[in-house]
Amino acid sequence: MMAKKVSELAQLTNAIIVGDGDMEIRRVASLDSADAGDIAYVDDAKFFEAARKSRASCIIVRTDSELDLPCELQVKNPKLAFALIAEVLHPPKRRPPEIHSSVVIADSANIALEVFVGAFVSIGENSEIGSGTQIRAGAQIGDDVTIGNDCVIHPNVFIENGVTIGDRVIIHAGVVIGSDGFGYVRGDMGYHKFPQIGSVIIEDDIEIGANTTIDRGALGRTRIGKGTKLDNMVHVGHNCDIGERVVIAAQTGISGSVTIEDDCVIGGQVGFGDHIHVQSGAVIGSKAGILPGKIVRPGVWWGIPIQPLDKYKRLNAHLSRVPHLREEVRELKKKIAQLEALLENHDG
Amino acid sequence: MMAKKVSELAQLTNAIIVGDGDMEIRRVASLDSADAGDIAYVDDAKFFEAARKSRASCIIVRTDSELDLPCELQVKNPKLAFALIAEVLHPPKRRPPEIHSSVVIADSANIALEVFVGAFVSIGENSEIGSGTQIRAGAQIGDDVTIGNDCVIHPNVFIENGVTIGDRVIIHAGVVIGSDGFGYVRGDMGYHKFPQIGSVIIEDDIEIGANTTIDRGALGRTRIGKGTKLDNMVHVGHNCDIGERVVIAAQTGISGSVTIEDDCVIGGQVGFGDHIHVQSGAVIGSKAGILPGKIVRPGVWWGIPIQPLDKYKRLNAHLSRVPHLREEVRELKKKIAQLEALLENHDG
Amino acid sequence: MMAKKVSELAQLTNAIIVGDGDMEIRRVASLDSADAGDIAYVDDAKFFEAARKSRASCIIVRTDSELDLPCELQVKNPKLAFALIAEVLHPPKRRPPEIHSSVVIADSANIALEVFVGAFVSIGENSEIGSGTQIRAGAQIGDDVTIGNDCVIHPNVFIENGVTIGDRVIIHAGVVIGSDGFGYVRGDMGYHKFPQIGSVIIEDDIEIGANTTIDRGALGRTRIGKGTKLDNMVHVGHNCDIGERVVIAAQTGISGSVTIEDDCVIGGQVGFGDHIHVQSGAVIGSKAGILPGKIVRPGVWWGIPIQPLDKYKRLNAHLSRVPHLREEVRELKKKIAQLEALLENHDG
Fold this sequence. Notes:
The structure is a homotrimer. Chain A is α/β, with parallel strands linked by helices. Chain A contains 5 helices and 41 strands.
C-alpha cells in the first residue's frame, strides 16, 4: 500500500488544501466507512451531514461547499479527484514479470521481457505480447494476436486468432473476443455459414466487463474505439464499429454492422437491430430496443422502439390517462343521449 | 447409486405409506418415464391419469388425493417430498479427496485435507479451502479467497482476490465473482476508473448459475445472502446487497448498490437501475424494468417501468380498447354534428 | 489458402459463367474491399454501383441482374453461392491430429486417432471423442460425454457429465452445456433443489455461440435439433426441446420445458416463460416476451406479451394517437356544453 501526503494529493488534483498538508493518507474510503488515514469525498449536499460525521482524515469537497471541515481538498469535481487519488493510492495489482512453468507458448510468438503470464495460459503462433502486460491464469490466446503494453487479461479469457488489442486495455474474466459472428444463408437443406473471416480491433484504454463477447467481422472488422468501456455480458456482433469514449452498460446486445459514434452512453439490456447508426453524443436508456437500420440522432432516447425521452414520457402520461378518458367518453355518450331525447321531445 | 426402502423414504418425508414398505427404490423419475424401482410424484389432478398409468414402483401423492395406487407415499407437499428423496437417492457427485498433479497452489494457501482439486486449477496466496469442497478442472482462485466446507466450484470458474464464500455453495461453470464493478468518472480527456477495491461475500447454501457475474464492491462489499439461488447469466453489480432465500431467474441484470431483502422472487431478464431497494417478499415479473432509486414494496410487480400487477393488467386492458374508443369518439362527433345541424335548423 | 478457378466455383454453385473461367480466385471479399484474386457478390440493386466499381476479379450476381460485368457468376441466390464458395476457399481451420502433452485424459476415455486436443484440456471417464474433432485449449469435458466426428470445441468450453454431441457441431468459447437447471421447491426453511439429473442431446450440424449456456434436463433431457444455430449468450433451460433448423439470436432466454418446433426464427433478447410451445415456422421478433404455457402458432409475433405483428402494429398506431384523441374529447365536451347551454336558453 502506498501512502501520500495531503499536499501531494492536492498537487495531483489541483486542489486547495484546508488543514494539515503533511498528513499521510493511505486509502480511499466512503464517508461512512472511512477511518484515520483515509480520504473520502462529498459532492451532493444531502451527504454533508455524513461528511461532518466521517472519521476520514481528509475529505475532498467542492470549492464552494462551505463545509469547514478540519482537512479538506477543495476542487471543482470531487468525484473525479477521488478517482484520480484512488489510482495513485490503489494502483492496479502489478504482478512481477514471470512466465509460469506450465504455459504453452508457440516458438514463433513474441513476448516482451516484462510480461506476466500465469498458469495454464497458451499463446499461439506469431502472437505478440507487449511490455508490462499481464495474462492471468487460464487465459487462452490464439494465433496472430497482438496485445499491446500494460494490458491486463484476466483469467479464462479467450482471444481468437488475428485479434489486435492496444495498450492499457483491461479484459475481465471469461471474455471472448474474435468468435465467429452469427450469419447464415438459408439453402434448401438448412443453413449455410456466411463466412466469418474478418478481424477485431480493440484500441487503447478500453475496459471490457466479465463474460462479454465480441465477434469478429464477417468480411471486414469489428472495432472498439479508444477509451470505450463495456460492462459485463455485453454482446457485440460482427462488423460493429464502436467509437471512442463510449460507455455500454451490462447485458446490452448489439447486432451486426452497428455503428456507435464517439461519446455515446448506452444503458443496460438495450437491444440493437443490425445496421443501426448512432450519432455522436446520443444517450440510450436501459432496456431500449432499436429497430434495424435506424439512425439515432444526438439526444436522449428511451423505450421499445426508441423515441426521444420527452416524447416517450409525454405519450406514457397520455396513456396512463386512458382509463379516465374512457370514463369521459362514457359521460359524453350519456349527455348526447339526453340532448337527443330533449330535442326529440322538443320537436314532438 | 443408493437404494432405499419405501419405509425409509416415508420416514424421511413424514409420509403415510400405502402398500409395501419393504419395496426398494433406486431412482426418482417422472410419471411418464418411470419404471420398476423408480419413485415419481403427482400433485396436480390433471396428471392423475398419468399417475394411474405410470410404471413407477411407488408414487408420492397428496394425503387427500384418493388416487388409491398400489404403492403411495402420502404427504402434504409431494413435490417437496420428491426433492428430499432425490437428495438421498441422487446425492451430488462427491469426488474423492485428491489434488491433481497439474494444480498450482501458492505455498501460503491453506487447503483442508478432504478436498478435491481438479486439473489445471490455480489457488493464490493466503487462500483457504474448506473440508469436503470440490474445485473442478480449470477453475482459477485468486489470492486471499476463502471458500468454506462442502462447496462445489465447477470448471472454468474464476474467483477474484479477496472474495469470501460460505459453506455448501454451488458455483456453476464459467461464473466470475469479484470482477471490477462498472464505475467511471468523466474527465476532460475521457473516463477515469472509479476505485473498485471492495469485496464480495457469498454466504452459505447459495447456488449460482453458469456464466453469472458478481462484481466486487467499489469501496464496500457486494453480498449474496444465505440460501439465495441465482440462475444462469445473472449480473450482480458492485455493492449490491441481496438477502436470504432470494430467487433470481436467468439473465436478470442488477445495477450497482441495489438492495433486495429476504425472500424476494425475481423473474428472468429483469433490469434494475442503481440504488433500488426491494422490500422483503416482493415478487417481480420477468422482463420488468425498474428505475434507479425506486423503493419496491411487497407485492407482485410487472412491466417497464414496474407497476403493481393488477394495475398493470387493468391499464393494459384499457389500452387494448383504445381502437374501440376511437371508434366511439368518431360516432359521438357525428352525433354532435347532427345535433348542431338540428339546432341550427330549429333556430333558423 | 486454397485457390480455385472461376469455372470450378461455377460448377460448385450451378452458375453461368460470364468472362474468363480460368481466372484464379483466392478469397471472398465485400464489394468495397475486394481486390484482384477476390470474388464478391451483389444481390440488392442499391449495391449495383458498388459492384461496377469493385476491383473484385469476379462477382456473383443474380441471373437477371443485367449488370454486364467483365466476370460474373450468374446464380439464383448470390449470397448463398457466396457462402458455398467461402466454405471452399476458407475452410475452417483444421488443426492436425495431436494430443497436447499437458492434457489429462481418463484411461477409460475413448479418443479417435485423428483428433486434436489442445493444451490444458481434461476429458473424463468413459467419454468418447470422434474422428476429426478438435478440442481447443482449456476446454473441460466431463465423464460419459460423447462427442461425434468433425466437431470444433473452442477454448474454455465446459461439457458436463453425460452430454451427447453429434457430428460437425461447432461450440464457441465459454459455452457451458449440461449445467444443473434452475429448479427448487420451497420448504419451511428455504429452498430445496429439485433433482437435475437428466441429460442433454446436441444433434448434428449445430453451432452454439460464445458464452451460451444449455442446462441439463431435470429428469428427462434437453435437446437441440439438427442444423439449429444459437448465437452468443443464449440461455436454454432444463428440458427444452429445440427442433431442427431453428435460429436463435443473442441473449435470448428460454425457461424450462419449452418446445420450439423445426424451422422457427427467434430474435435476440427474447424471453420465454416455461412450458411454451412454439409451432413450426413461427417467427418471434427481438425483445419479445412470452407468458408461460403459451402456444405460439406459425406467423410473425412481436411485443411483450407477444401478439401477431400486424395486430401489434395496429394497436401501437392507435396508441400513438391517444394524445390527439384526448384533444378531440376535450373539443366534444366543449361542444356539448355549448349545445346544453343553447337548449337551456331555448327552453328558458
